[in-house]
Design brief:
The complex is a heterodimer of chains A (277) and B (369). By secondary structure, chain A is α/β, with parallel strands linked by helices. Chain A is 32% helix and 26% strand. The chains are: A alpha/beta (277), B alpha+beta (369). The interface between A and B is medium-sized, with 36 and 26 residues.
């Protein structure tokens, strides 16, 4: 029986390097993603988002902690077992699409089924149907170089979904798309989560996704927490940390500002504003 | 199932052309060398096989027709003729000597030959007469065509003018060819009166051949009898000893060229597509699956290269053979099968480095933009 929460991370930590050069990319992260849920993970560059996604996708082993896929502890699995797990349970959608350039759109999708051990005419038909469902019926036999960015991303989504995985991991899926196509892609991902009962995790800087996400989490300095509303401590304006142009750390806490003036005033006498807050 | 290897290979036609061309060149080089070796081996032994003898007798302790000089007195033939089972014992006189064609010196292997005996004559005639009388000479087609020698023309043989009465075929020995003169002329010109270099024996019946060989070896002092096959093999040693080491080095170079070309093109393709291989790994492809993709690419390049190389070999062999009769190429089906195995070996060797590279591709590469 399939778990209600296909993906669970328990106390996951990832440290790169050792000794004085050790860098903690992700620290003690606990995360549970349910079926039908579109989870958005946001955070500044270098915050550990991609490292977290890579571990969730079983492409990188954590230094400590446990990654559970459908209740199975993946940290004890061999590379071959992890490959098998990825073949059937995890679909990836990438920022730069990562389609195989020598193959047509349909073949790109079909390869995903081939890797899961499925071949033949039925497999071709399923790949074609998967593309049709994403509005790419007329583009099936085109190579990636002939497709627009939005079309490539939809092929990438079809490739991720065709094997019917429990988990879909999307890394900056809208980063290379214009606003309209970016929104379309997010709506597709939302439909996948809600309509097909997948656990969809999106890592992105794109604030447009926030309104469609079921849950938004913030990752900074390797720590993951529920996204809080940030306010400029000087003027009180609501600030989206992902878009904040100014920030300043005081006593270990990061504050975001709407503009340089507020930041300067805060820097001169932080206690004045913190007391008031 | 989507054949990623084939699609990758044919998507970049320029690289495919280089890869296939490199293998074809290597196959051409190897085939020509193997063909020359086989052709020369065949040419060297063809005369021995075609001389009409069942048994060749040489002076004990000597080797082949080319490396050592065998001398036996006429009395040896008298002893041999008395042995049971011997039907005929014909003296063979022959050694290398210069022919003067116009002002040009041409080396030939002169054979003193009596057409009435029916032993030791040309392999076959291309034109003119096979019956050579004193004052006449038969030259090989390779010598005739490269020196523009015509029937009826006079050439100097060891200072004596001889008229060309026949052009023979099958006597091309690469560095020189056979020329046939009357036995009387040979005795005179080669200073071999009363002696022979070899004796060519005919036996009464084929089953007696081994007995005759044994009898000669046991009862005729200073004589060493060999079956025609064994004597041909001894002569083949001339080629093996002289040319085989050179040919092997060149074949090895050809193999190296093939491996380098396939290896570099497949390696470059693997490096270029390392991100795509990373994507496949992320999607669940095992290293084994990716090895098969690279091996298949190399194998297809090798097979296509082999086919092209084989066709080029046929064309080059035909053209070069027409241009120069010294260019004797003989390729057996077994040799071609062997060369195809070499091409496959090339592809396997060429895949070694790219396959090792694949192991190190980190699937997490897919998340780097």
């Amino acid at each position: 029986m399939k778990s209600d929460a296909p993906l669970e991370l328990r106390k996951v930590t990832k440290v790169f390097g050792g000794g004085n050069n050790a860098v903690t990319a992700v620290k003690d992260v606990d995360l549970l993603v349910k079926r039908g849920e579109l989870l958005l993970i946001m955070g500044p560059s270098g915050s550990g988002k991609t490292t977290l996604l890579t571990m969730a996708g079983c492409l990188l082993r954590p230094t400590s902690g446990t990654v559970l896929i459908d209740g199975m502890d993946t940290t004890r699995m061999s590379d071959r077992e992890l490959s098998k797990l990825r073949q059937r349970s995890i679909g990836f959608v990438f920022q730069s699409f990562n389609l195989l350039s020598a193959l047509t759109a349909q073949q790109n999708v079909e390869v995903s089924l081939n890797l899961a051990g499925r071949n033949g005419l039925a497999c071709q038909e399923e790949s074609a149907r998967s593309l049709d469902n994403l509005g790419l019926a007329a583009r099936r036999h085109f190579r990636p170089e002939k497709l627009s960015g939005g079309e490539k991303q939809r092929v990438s989504i079809a490739r991720a979904l065709v094997k019917d995985p429990d988990i879909v991991l999307a890394d900056e899926p809208t980063a290379n798309l214009d606003s309209r196509r970016g929104r379309e892609i997010v709506e597709v991902l939302k439909a996948i989560a809600g309509g097909r009962g997948k656990a969809v995790i999106v890592v992105s800087h794109d604030h447009r996704i926030r309104e469609l996400a079921d849950r938004v989490m913030w990752l900074e300095d390797g720590r993951l927490e529920e996204m809080k509303v940030h306010r400029d401590p000087v003027c009180g304006m609501e600030i989206d940390p992902a878009r904040a142009s100014r920030s300043l750390t005081h006593n270990g806490v990061t504050y975001y500002f709407c503009a340089e003036g507020c930041q300067r005033l805060f820097a001169e006498d932080p206690n004045r504003f913190l007391k008031a807050g | 199932m989507v054949n990623i290897a084939r699609h990758n290979l044919f998507a970049d036609k320029g690289r495919l052309f280089i890869s296939v061309g490199g293998v074809a060149f290597a196959v051409l080089l190897i085939s020509i060398l193997v063909g020359l070796y086989q052709g020369w081996s065949r040419a060297v032994t063809l005369y021995v096989h075609s001389a009409g003898a069942d048994v060749w007798v040489r002076q004990y302790g000597t080797a082949d027709m080319f490396h050592s000089t065998s001398f036996m007195p006429a009395s040896t033939a008298d002893r041999i003729r008395q042995l049971p089972g011997v039907k005929q014992a014909t003296p063979f006189l022959g050694r290398t000597a210069n022919l003067t064609v116009g002002t040009k010196q041409v080396m030939a292997y002169l054979v003193g030959y009596d057409s009435n005996d029916g032993l030791g004559g040309p392999v076959r005639m291309s034109s003119g007469s096979a019956a050579v009388r004193p004052g006449e000479v038969i030259v090989d087609r390779s010598l005739a065509s490269s020196n523009d020698v015509k029937l009826g023309q006079t050439v100097q043989v060891l200072g004596k003018p001889l008229k060309v009465v026949g052009i023979s075929d099958g006597g091309n020995m690469m560095i020189y060819s056979f020329a046939f003169i009357a036995r009387e002329d040979a005795e005179d010109l080669l200073r071999l009166k009363g002696v022979a270099n070899f004796y060519l024996l005919k036996v009464e019946s084929p089953p007696q051949r081994n007995d005759v060989i044994q009898s000669v070896n046991l009862q005729v002092a200073g004589a060493d009898a060999l079956s025609v096959e064994d004597f041909a093999e001894v002569n083949r040693g001339f080629i093996d000893g002289t040319f085989l080491p050179i040919i092997m080095v060149l074949i090895f170079i050809g193999f190296g060229v093939g491996v380098a070309v396939i290896g570099l093109t497949i390696y470059a393709a693997t490096m270029e597509k390392s991100r795509e291989f990373g994507v496949l790994k992320a999607m669940g492809a095992t290293n084994g699956m990716l090895y098969r993709v690279v091996l298949q690419q190399a194998l297809v390049a090798a097979v296509l290269g082999y086919v092209l190389g084989a066709l080029l070999t046929i064309a080059v062999a035909a053209t070069a053979g027409r241009a120069s009769p010294m260019f004797v190429i003989s390729l057996t089906p077994a040799a071609m099968a062997g060369i195809s195995a070499v091409a496959i070996l090339m592809s396997l060797a060429a895949s070694f480095v790219p396959v090792n590279r694949l192991v190190r591709i980190d699937p997490a590469i897919v998340f780097r933009s």
